[in-house]
Design goal:
The chain is an alpha/beta fold. The protein folds into two domains: 5-161 and 346-368, 3-Layer(aba) Sandwich (Rossmann fold); 176-343, Glycogen Phosphorylase B (Rossmann fold), CATH 3.40.50.2000. The protein is built from twelve helices and twelve strands.
Length: 371
């Protein structure tokens, strides 16, 4: 494949991070560089192997005009660089290809303090500047369909999130604080209590149910993530460990049996969370509320019975109690999930697929221009 020069816009990355967005950005850049491409980023970033775009006007323009791709990472609000997809900025910088990477829908803003009017303005802005977007990268089919239908971007590549199976695996030292729990059935939830779509109520009620019927000493819950909201109301079989640097998470997950992803729904309908793939790479069995991507994945793994009804702690308690009594199935599903990550849901494949599609667009443009 030809080397591609890509300007990685509007992203700011620091080492020793704890957020999922930083994980995605680091993996994108490091894998792109490993594949032989050039990544250029804004000053003060700490991406491994990336080049820094100069800030003085003449050097900035000259550098940007050497790029093959403007790559914009998007969350729920459009950053200012979205306007670079259209003239006069696009003519000034001369970008052959503009790629937008979608990680959620604008409606998620309603769960993070935005008003309906602000969300509508975000959608209108995405539509306006999306006319100059050549390719939208979307992690799931529902997200891709949303982008096409609601934002008017025709060309979409489905590129799921992934994990690094060399980093997340079971044959590594366990974090020392898990030593007292080595004989228990350990259930982990990675997430922030400050994000409204995470359903921590069902975790608390499930743990209480198991505690009250005498299973609290066997099924142990572990919460890893920022935010202390509601932790004081948890029963004794729930342990809160706080936020952890991403590179240390494998040593926690290697000590776990089950990974939880339980939400209220809403914008999560469109996503495939990073923690899901890290659970799988670590050989954990996953229990989740239903959403399109996860339902398909569970069907493939033969574990659709591990989809828990939203807001139903009795159902979750029964699932976890059943798994705790069938450790052989837990190990079998964990091995199958890890193999799926090795084969399909890893960062190297996601980044390779992305650059292959960018290369296709560059070649199509070259042919249209008579090359």
């Amino acid at each position: 494949m030809k080397k591609i020069r890509l300007a990685y816009a509007n992203t700011y990355f620091q080492k020793n991070h704890v957020g999922g967005g930083h994980v995605h950005m680091e993996q994108f850049v490091s894998n792109a560089v490993a594949l032989g491409h050039e990544i250029w980023s804004w000053p003060n970033n700490e991406y491994p192997g990336a080049h820094i775009i100069p800030t003085d006007f003449a050097s900035f323009i000259r550098t940007m005009r050497q790029m093959d791709v403007l790559y914009v990472r998007l969350e729920r609000k459009p950053p200012n660089v979205c306007k670079w997809s259209l003239p006069p900025y696009r003519m000034l910088y001369g970008f052959p290809v503009v790629v937008w990477e979608f990680n959620t829908v604008p409606e998620e803003g309603l769960m993070r303090g935005q008003t309906e009017q602000e969300v509508k303005q975000a959608i209108d802005t995405f539509r306006r500047y999306g006319r100059g977007c050549d390719l939208a990268i979307c992690m799931t089919k529902p997200l891709g369909e949303y982008v096409q239908k609601n934002l008017g971007i025709e060309r979409v590549l489905l590129a799921p999130n992934g994990s690094d199976p060399d980093l997340f695996r079971r044959d590594i030292p366990l974090v020392k604080r898990m030593a007292p729990f080595k004989d228990q059935f350990n259930v982990v939830w990675i997430g922030s209590a400050n994000i409204e779509y995470h359903d921590f109520d069902i975790l608390r009620e499930t743990a209480q149910l198991l505690w009250d019927r005498g299973e609290g000493s066997e099924v142990i819950f572990h919460i890893i993530g920022p935010g202390l909201k509601g932790m004081g109301d948890m029963p004794p079989n729930v342990h809160y460990w706080g936020a952890e640097h991403y590179k240390k998470l494998p040593h926690w997950l290697a000590a776990m049996d089950v990974g939880l992803y339980i939400t209220h729904g809403g914008p999560t309908y469109y996503t495939a969370p990073l923690k899901l793939f890290d659970y799988l790479a670590s050989g954990l069995t996953v229990v989740s509320t239903p959403q399109p991507f996860i339902k398909g994945l569970f069907e493939e793994l033969g574990q659709s019975d591990l989809l828990v009804s939203p807001g139903d702690p009795k159902h979750l308690a029964e699932i976890l109690s059943s798994l705790a009594q069938d450790r052989a199935r837990v190990r079998r599903l964990g091995q199958a999930g890890r193999q799926l990550v090795i084969e399909r849901y890893n960062w190297r494949k996601t980044v390779t697929d992305t650059f292959n599609e960018i290369q296709n667009i560059l070649e199509e443009q070259h042919k249209r221009n008579g090359g």
